Predict the 3D structure of the following.
Amino acid sequence: MFSRLHEDIACILERDPAARSPWEVLTCYPGLHALVWHRMAHAFWRRGWRWLARFTSHLGRFLTGIEIHPGATIGRRVFIDHGMGVVIGETAEIGDDCTIYQGVTLGGTSLAKGAKRHPTLGRGVIVGANSQVLGGFTVGDGARIGSGAVVVKPVPPGATAVGNPARVIQAQDEKASEAAREAVAAKMGFSAYGVTQGDDPVSQAMKGLIDNASGHEHQIALLWQAIEKLSARSRELPAEVCVPTDAHTTETFDAEGLNRLVK
């Protein structure tokens, strides 16, 4: 028990720059307190003491604002940051080294008793604030779920998912290194609090179309400039080769301005 507590405190000190000391973490972090209450409730649940497990879970919810069903399975070094409003369902499974922010729901969409109704999070998953992960599917190792996302289908390992319904915007091979995953997440603009850096797939598609159109205009302008030079050098060229008066030999496409509109 004490070794698990030591691990939890160490992982919070590592992941939260606001944490200044082990004593501060031990006394002031409701996410840590919720996990301690859950371990007691889960032990009662496994022994078949269902009412006592639920009552212990209820006390933990009252004291921390974090509701974890005693049947849920939670791995080591899980960090529930801030935590107010987090709900974790009965058949949910959370892997080691996961980070969960406030307002997250790991919920179910089925009413069948005894069935796997809640999601499974792999190792190192980050679930952003106010996200909803609904259903008995798996979120792969190292995946990121952006703030406010509503996830209703599996997320591949190493992927970043955003939006409602959530869309996967980047996926890597399961064997990709953690450093590579971190670099991809930073590049794609993942943010647990929704302050994104262009990770909206629709916005990215629009920017791609704008850049493509800008490139075409540039190439066309270069072609007309080349034809204009040839016309000036030789008066023997056919008339149809001469540059028409309405030909654009300079670029007027404002790609930067349009890109700013879709940011």
